[in-house]
Amino acid sequence: MKSLSKLLSSIMIEEIIGSDDKIITDVVSDSRKVTTGALFVAVRGTTVDGHSFIPLLQYSGVAAIVCEEFPEFIETSITYIKVSDSAVALGYLASEWWDNPSKSLKLIGVTGTNGKTTTATLIYEMARLMGYKAGLLSTVCNYIETEAVPTAQTTPDPLTINALLRRMVDAGCRYASMEVSSHAAHQHRISGLNFAGGIFSNLTRDHLDYHKTVGAYLAAKKSFFDDLPGSAFALTNIDDKAGNVMLQNTAARKYTYSLRTGADFNGRIIESRLNGTTMNFNGREVEVLFTGKFNAYNLTAVYGASVLLGWPVEQVLVNMSRLVPVAGRFQAFHSPKGFTAIVDYAHTPDAVVNVLQAIREVVGSRGSIITVVGAGGNRDKGKRPIMAKEAALRSDRLILTSDNPRDEEPAEILQDMEAGLDLEGRKKTLSIIDRREAIRTAAALANAGDVILIAGKGHEDYQEIKGVKHHFDDREVVCEVIEESR
User: Fold this and answer.
1) Of 228, 224, 232, 152, nearest to 187 (Cα)?
2) Locate the Mur ligase central domain: which residues (predicted)?
3) Is 403 within any annotated ligand binding site?
């Protein structure tokens, strides 16, 4: 419990009605979770406005309400606090409620279209290899040192974030890394957090169903860097055209990384294989267990962040070779028939291109690439034909299949994808709605030396169809199919 006056000292207040001399028993932004003595923060969401529930809470026992506009009816037993943006206020109130845990950690945020999960996870793993306790907030899973905590979204709400960070601090963690999605930045879910560093990976088309324009998408990413404090570092991919944009208005110390040009942290691929790569980091050669240029960028960012965190360079280089790929990210499975299946989360045109280029660099003309890919329903429809086009250009055979259709018909999603194919692309393409059958067909078509890419779902262990999540794991299906082919 905390005094209301103490909580309110963390936010900018425009007007207050009632007394701040109260004890608060909980802070919530979900009206269904209001209990006696709670502070309710009315946030305007994308589909629901928390202000609409205020009249229903007048006799709920709620002690105080933070809002952007006062209700018509004022209940004298409730304290009303007016702020300019309740989403921003929620972040600071959540931090204060949990005793500002981000100030007791070295918290690193990673943003960008692709590479967030891998980069954030590897920083967490690096911290542990360096001998520190650490935490992670990611798309795949949250970790409090070694304790796995299931995750529902890339970046949780402020109350969940701070509750997890508090558990990390209480568990003795000194470092934490987290993915910062564009949605989270735009919705102020990271408001009130104290970051020690921020990393930008890249920016390509994604989430335009939400942001509408690439410019708005970029602005959401940039806002994370704009808000970094002067004590933090801002590490950006200078090879991406948006890289310098991220640094324009930040107060943080500015650093760059690159595979192509002079930067503070340079990475270079010397030799690439399906099971690893020989890389050079700032003049030092290291064997890593990752494949592809996109992973080389992720690893260079991890190397740079590790150095900026003050960890000894020699030990960092040794540990770079000990890092292992994240589940569902370029995860390879080898068949006795001689082909290799790779499961990857690539679900944007750029990500599909990156993975296929990485495979082609290794396979060359010695084997064929068979790609199995779909597109999610109720998401940016504009990227569907682009994904199919790019996949067809870089594959010898292409199988379009269902991903997470959500509320859409899978056949209609595949039609949207097929629209991006020219005559040559159509000749090499099959459309098989059943994802299991699509994977099985790819395996039947594969010969020794070939590589099957199963893209789009990666670590996910479900298919969402008409609001219901059905168990489906690409990795499990691949293992089943390989076993069947023995």
Assistant:
1) 224
2) 110-304
3) yes
User: Measuring CA to CA, which residue among 402, 400, 423 is closest to residue 466?
Assistant: 402
379 is in an annotated binding site: yes
Distance of CA 277 to the CA centre of its chain: 24
50 is in an annotated binding site: no
267 labeled binding residue: no
Residue whose tokens read 């107060």: 251
Burial class of residue 25, CB neighbours in 10 A (0-12, 13-18, 19+):
middle
Closest CA to 345 of 485, 154, 97, 65: 154
| 3-state secondary structure (DSSP) of residue 291 | coil
- Any known ligand binding at 435? no
Mean pLDDT (the chain, rounded): 94
pTM, two decimals, is 0.85
User: What pLDDT score was predicted for residue 113?
Assistant: 86
Which residues are CB-contacts of 264 (< 8 A; sequence separation ≥ 6)? 255, 256, 257, 304
**Could you give the CA distance from residue 237 to residue 244 in angstroms, rounded to a whole number?**
8
Please work out, in degrees rounded to the nearest 5, the angle formed at the alpha carbon of residue 269 by the alpha carbons of 391 and 116. 60
What are the Cα distances from residue 29, in Å, to 12, 64, 67? 18, 12, 11
Tokens of 120: 């954030």
Query: 276 by DSSP, 3-state: which?
Result: strand
* DSSP state for residue 326 in the 8-state scheme: P
- 456 known ligand binder: yes
215 annotated as ligand-binding: no
The amino acid present at 235, given as its one-letter code, is L
In which residue ranges of the chain is pLDDT below 50?
Answer: 207, 210-211
CA distance 42 to 474: 40
Q: Is 118 annotated as a binding residue?
A: yes
- Annotated binding residue 194: no
The pair phi, psi for residue 69, each rounded to 5°, is -150, 140
Nearest to 369 by CA among 433, 449, 431: 449
pLDDT of residue 206: 52
Q: Which of 169, 30, 148 has the alpha carbon at shortest distance from 99?
A: 169
**pLDDT at res. 211:** 45
- Asked whether residue 322 is marked as a ligand-binding residue, the answer is no
Going by DSSP bridges, is the β-strand pair 340-344/331-334 parallel, antiparallel, or unpaired? Answer: antiparallel
DSSP string of 362-401, one letter each residue: HHTTSS-EEEEE---TTS-TTHHHHHHHHHHHT-SEEEE-
| Alpha carbon 194 to chain centroid, angstroms | 19
Q: Which of 242, 238, 234 is nearest to 217 (CA)?
A: 242
Residue 415 assigned as binding residue: no
